[in-house]
Amino acid sequence: MDRSDPSVVRERFEQLAADDVAAAQALLVGRSVVQPFDAAICAQQQEIEGSISGDAELDATMRQLTESACNDQVVTYTVGNGFEYDLQTTDSLISPFVGEVALDWYQHHAVVNAAGRALRDDITLPRQWRLSYAYQDGEWALTKVEEYTPEQPYWQDSALGQMLFILGVAPGEPTQ
Question: What is the pLDDT of residues 10-20, one digit of tens each?
């Protein structure tokens, strides 16, 4: 049974959380990934836009969606400066402590034409990561990375989060 001093465990967890957030910020600083348009999605969006008309506000929204679907997007990621954490003791002999870190991050999308000129640069999507840790054999181990998005309002596995926090790889970089 691990008989670690809870105040030392808390201090180590706080430092680990701060280090992980700083590492994600460093990996993402100045990083952009081009998402090329998909012709099938473009055609589908054009068909949807063509079938809806009459409401000026809806027409403008549909034009923006078609413009986004039919052009490349440059995606930039940023991580917020702050984070929250929760640390708990458990009855487990293997993992006497568990912790979670929650931090905000954002996807910024710029829609660009074939010449690379920005058509729109005002799309920002807020996100949140939840990192789960277990204290085992005197060390903290990352056990799960999940994300929450307004489009899918529930916690789910995060491929981008796993790249950053487990593999230490930024978007657009090869994993091996």
Answer: 999 999 999 98
